[in-house]
Amino acid sequence: LEKDNERIRQQELSNRLKSLKKNSLMDERFSGCTFENWIIESENKKLYNLGRRYCEKWDKIKKENIGLIFHGVPGTGKTFLSFCIANYLIDRYVPTIAISSIGILSRIKETYSSYGKEGEAEIIRTIQNADLLVLDDLGAENNTEWAKEKLYEIVDFRYRNEKPIIITTNLSMDVLKNKLTGEDGVSRTYDRILEICQPIEVKGESKRVKKASEKTQLLKNILN
Questions:
Q1: What is the model's pTM?
Q2: Phi, psi for residue 203 in degrees, rounded to 5
Q3: Is residue 47 a contact partner of residue 81, using CB atoms and an 8 Å limit?
């Protein structure tokens, strides 16, 4: 009987984890972003340690509503780090949403043709209910008033309900502020973000540029 109860419990936990992963909205290609897969180098060790500590102190982080905004040039590991945090917490049964700003807005738009406002409300509710929201590549979305309004709704809800957000952006903080400012000239979304997210500049050589340079050299060697 004890073995049966344990088997049922494990099955329930497994089902719960599958459900959390499905509801995370995470693209499958980010499932491999884990601290176990992190290649620790001198230039990224501080980021690794920051991410691990954030996860290990999650109960306090959640209680104090401490978010992060990673900003810096593309290819420095901002997305990988934020999805490492997301996967770590999901594996510990913390409801987490991890998606790009373009992805969120696309999903909302998709609901208009088939479900209308009810579909939009369901997507927004899913985002709102998550203990942690990872919003990747903020600022890459189309610069429309509709996009700004939807992003404000999401950020404002989490601000008011004291639910943490982790944001990544390839823009500088000043450029991001300008991008998020509405036609009325008020930077309300940016101001909300700064109230709940600690800005962290991620420096270092772009891994993508380095990889491209290595491939160019490899091609030259082959052709010569």
A1: 0.84
A2: -100, 180
A3: yes
